Amino acid sequence: MRKTKIICTVGPATDEDGVLEKMIKAGMNVARFNFSHGTHEMHKKRFDELVALRDKLDLPIATMLDTKGPEIRIGYFKDHKAVTLKDGDDYILTSRDIECDEKQASVSFKELPQDVRMGRGLAEGERERSQPPALRATSFQRKEGEIEVSAALYILQV
């Protein structure tokens, strides 16, 4: 028995007639549904097709639901102007609904002031694990509904 499993992501490229069946016959063991993209209705249609093919071919094809993780968004900036932070700048992240500027920004994650820990990355973004976060809480003060962050900024090389 083969110990390696083949996981394939199903999506728009697998919607064409016969593609999913070819993937199964080629050795797919697990169908991955990426819920970061598409609608629940689209995934349900693909899942139903997978179940029908699994029954037709009498093969134990597993399903993996890759659910969308939490997203933390900042609010809109005054006059849509960019803000540049420098290493060591103090910046306030608040759960209050405010217009963002060079001193403070509102965040959609209302529990951020209670959740953040010293030294933890706050603005991780898309990066390699070996790279430092773009914004790290190096020191902060908790206030009601907000956190003041002394930023340690890094330029991420792509």
Describe this structure in words.
This protein is an alpha/beta fold. The protein has 3 helices and 7 strands. The strands form 2 sheets. Strands 5-4-7-6 form a 4-stranded mixed sheet. A 3-stranded parallel sheet has the order 1-2-3. The radius of gyration is 22 Å and the shape is elongated. The protein starts with 6 loop residues before the first strand and ends in a 7-residue tail after the last strand. 12% of the residues are buried.
Keywords:
158 residues, alpha/beta, four-stranded mixed β-sheet, 3 helices, 18% helix, disordered C terminus
What's this, in brief?
The protein is built from three helices and seven strands; from the N terminus they run E-H-E-H-E-E-E-H-E-E. The protein is α/β, with parallel strands linked by helices and 158 residues long.
Show the helix and strand layout.
Blueprint lengths: L6 E4 L8 H7 L4 E5 L5 H18 L4 E5 L23 E5 L9 E3 L5 H4 L21 E7 L2 E6 L7
Parallel strand pairs: 1-2, 2-3, 4-5
Antiparallel strand pairs: 4-7, 6-7
Q: Order of SSEs, N→C?
A: EHEHEEEHEE
Q: What structural class do helix, strand and pairing data support?
A: alpha/beta
Number of helices: 3
Major β-sheet annotation: 4 strands, mixed
| Strand coverage percent | 15-25%
Q: Percent of residues in helical segments? A: 10-25%
Shape: elongated
Strand order of the largest sheet: 5-4-7-6
CA radius of gyration is 22 Å
The assembly state of the depicted protein chains is: single chain
Report the mean per-residue pLDDT as an integer. Answer: 77
Number of strands: 7
Which regions are unreliable across 5 or more consecutive residues at pLDDT < 50?
124-134, 152-158
The N- and C-terminal alpha carbons lie at a distance of 41 Å
